[in-house]
Amino acid sequence: MATDPDRPGFLLPLLLLAGFRTLIDDLHAELARQGHPELRPLHGFVLQAVGADGTTATELGQRLGISKQAAGKTVDRLVALGYLERADDPRDARRKLVRMTPHGHDGLRRSAVIFDQLRQRWADTLGADRVAALEDDLRMVTPANWFRLDVPGWFGG
């Protein structure tokens, strides 16, 4: 089977990554304008992994596919920035929970709104039907459990 020289196989993942990077860069530029200039792409994965009920640093590391030490360092940074807090676990006094602060919840809420706006921008440029078709096509070629929080660990090796 001959490959189209204008569409080599390696280009697809690069274009997908470029699209992802464009969305993430645009998200963070808008988050900065809305009062969250210190949030970085990794922080979004961390806040999602912490979740509404909180977690421990060990569990956070497992969810992200990184070491407990790396998770602890990231938690320290997000605590210093006011996005996370450490608290005693009411079910087990030996454990410390990591929880989102109101500032952390605000960052995630704003991210969701901004992603909707960015999707609309793509729809305005490409057409709503083409964006919907792109999403449908990607659903067909990706696993059902596509959302994995360990992307930072996966990218980091």
Automatic annotation (TrEMBL):
Keyword check for Transmembrane helix: no
Pfam family, one: MarR_2
Molecular-function GO term, any one: DNA-binding transcription factor activity
Alphabetically ordered keywords of this record: DNA-binding
Listed GO biological process terms: response to stress
Keyword DNA-binding attributed: yes
PROSITE patterns: HTH_MARR_2 (PS50995)
Domain of life: Bacteria
Residue ranges annotated for the HTH marR-type domain, each copy included: 1-143
UniProt protein name: DNA-binding transcriptional regulator, MarR family
Species in which this protein is naturally found: Micromonospora echinaurantiaca
